[in-house]
Amino acid sequence: MKFYPALIFTLLLSFVSSPAFAQNIDHAIDLYNHALNDEAKLQFLAIKHDRGAANEHRSEAMYWLGQIAFEESRYAVALGEWEALVSDYPNSERANEIETRLSELGEVLAEHTSDRALSAVASSWLRNGDFWSGSDRTFTIDSSWLPKLEQALHWYDRVIAEFPGTPAAEAAYARKLFALLGWETSGRYGSSYGLKLDFKLITAVTETFAEFEEQFPENPQLQGFRFQIAQAYWGKRQWNEARTWLNRIIEVADGTQTFYTETARQRLEHLEY
C-alpha cells in the first residue's frame, strides 16, 4: 500500500479549515458544559497546537483552556494562557474581551499562584524558607467600618452591565438579591446588613427581582426569592404585600405542587398574627 504524504497533508489542511473543524470547538465547549473537562482540554489543546487551524479557532481554544485552568484553581496557568492569547492574537474577539481585564485578573491570581512553574531547586529553597516563616503568604483586609453591601453591589452590578444576558449576569442577579436581602455576622460585635438592617431596601429588592425575572424568566431560584420577599413583608406585618407575593408563587406554578407553592399556601392560612 502506497502513501502519498502531499495528498494526506492537503486533505488534512482542507479538514482543519473546513466547517467540520469549527465544529470541534463547539464539541469541546459542549464537553466543558457537561463538566467533561479532561476531554474538553484535550480537544482545545489539539486545536491550539494545530498549525493548520484558523486563528479564530486557536484563540478560542486558548480562551477556554484559561477558563478551565481558572476553575481548577491553576491560576498561573490561566493567566499565562490568557496573556499568550492577547500576545499571539491581539485582534481576536477573545483578546479584546480579556486584554482590558488582565491587570485586574493579575491582582486576583497573584494571591493564588503556586510554585509549579519554578525549578525544583528554587522550589525546595522556597519551602525551606517557608518552614521558618510564620506567614501564611495571603493578603488580609480588615473590612471593619467599610460599606460591605455597597461594595458587593458594585461588583454584581458591573457583571450585569458588562455581561448582559450571560450566565455570569444571571449569577450576579441572584447574588445581588441575596446581598440585598441581607445577612448577619455572628459574635459579640456582630452586625446586620441589607434588608435585615434597613427595611427601606425592600424597594431595591423588588426592583432587582423584577429585572432578574425579566432577563431570566426560567431561573429556578425565582420562586425562592419570591418567598423571601413575601417573608420580609410578613415580618413587618405588611399583610397585603405578603399576600400578593405568596399568591404570585402559586400563580406562576400553574397548578404544579412544589415546596414553595405548598409553603405559600400554608403561610396564607396563617398569615396574620
Automatic annotation (TrEMBL):
Spell out the Pfam families in the cross-references: TPR_6 (PF13174)
Per UniProt, the keywords (alphabetical) are: Signal
Give the species this sequence originates from. Lujinxingia vulgaris
Instruction: Identify this protein by name.
Output: Tetratricopeptide repeat protein
Q: Which residues form the signal peptide?
A: 1-22
